[in-house]
């Protein structure tokens, strides 16, 4: 929140695919001195088109390939007339390395999403409507969207999160890293203290602490049978937004799990209607 964030030099590289509805490009952009890779789907037809930045969930960087998250959403949203910029994040695919990112609770991913929006805005590309930009995040990427909304209020026009992680990083650390015996936990706590030793730090890195800063509408989509990210996390976050008087809606899907299967089309209809209201 104290930093000046920069995102520039959006460059379209090779064409990865062409469909009747859109063209898929490899892209790079610059974020605070780092090069970040990703993909961008550009709809066919006459723009400018509203744009969406997609923040993917956790995928092991050793197996991740560029544009590797949310393929269904990338395709559908482009077919519906959105420029889709899917960031790889730093330390993934063709992006530059940031050796401190894991110890710093992957906050660099938040910088990468902020930078993606700023790079879209400054690109000068005629197909992008810089006055209509939204965010969509899944799982870990949902937490990145929460962070972005409190770090850079007013940056975008609306946000959607699917099956998001907790808005309290200490809960995510316990569930996904401590439980799996991830050695980075010891490094994180050596650098920042445990939640018991240094509660002030852990409160300050929780986006839910700063919901009063948020200015954009948010929809949270979560399945009742999600055994990866408990629905209780989204209920708590939505309640905090509501208490702060923010525009938030929690939509639950009975029996749906973390990855969204049978109810995915329903969830995307909700998503598209929401973005149409705020970006249309």
From TrEMBL:
Keywords tagged on the record: Hydrolase
Keyword Cytoplasm: no
A single MF term (Gene Ontology): serine-type peptidase activity
Domain Peptidase S9 prolyl oligopeptidase catalytic: 73-280
Swiss-Prot/TrEMBL GO biological process terms: proteolysis
Family: Belongs to the AB hydrolase superfamily.
Name of the protein in its database record: Alpha/beta fold hydrolase
Lineage of origin: Bacteria, Bacillati, Actinomycetota, Actinomycetes, Kitasatosporales
């Amino acid at each position: 929140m104290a930093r000046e964030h920069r995102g520039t030099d959006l460059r379209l590289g090779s064409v990865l695919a062409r469909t009747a509805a859109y063209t898929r490009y490899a892209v790079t952009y610059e974020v605070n001195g780092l090069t970040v890779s990703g993909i961008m789907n550009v709809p066919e037809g006459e723009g400018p088109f509203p744009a969406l930045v997609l923040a993917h969930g956790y995928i092991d960087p050793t197996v991740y390939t560029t544009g590797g998250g949310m393929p269904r959403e990338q395709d559908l949203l482009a077919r519906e007339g959105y420029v889709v910029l899917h960031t790889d994040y730093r330390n993934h695919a063709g992006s530059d390395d940031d050796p401190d990112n894991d110890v710093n609770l992957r906050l660099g991913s938040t910088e990468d999403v902020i930078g993606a929006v700023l790079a879209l805005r400054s690109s000068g590309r005629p197909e992008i409507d810089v006055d209509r930009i939204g965010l969509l995040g899944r799982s870990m990427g949902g937490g990145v969207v929460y962070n972005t909304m409190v770090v850079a209020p007013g940056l975008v026009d609306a946000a959607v999160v699917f099956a998001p992680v907790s808005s309290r990083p200490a809960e995510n650390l316990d569930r996904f890293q401590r439980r799996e015996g991830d050695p980075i936990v010891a490094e994180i706590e050596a650098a920042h203290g445990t939640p018991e030793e240094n509660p002030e730090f852990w409160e300050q890195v929780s986006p839910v602490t700063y919901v009063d800063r948020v200015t954009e509408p948010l929809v949270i989509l979560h399945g009742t049978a999600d055994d990866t990210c408990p629905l209780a996390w989204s209920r708590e976050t939505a309640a905090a937004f509501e208490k702060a008087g923010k525009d938030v809606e929690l939509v639950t899907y009975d029996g749906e799990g973390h990855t969204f299967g049978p109810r995915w089309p329903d969830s995307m209809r909700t998503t598209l209607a929401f973005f149409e209201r705020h970006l249309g």
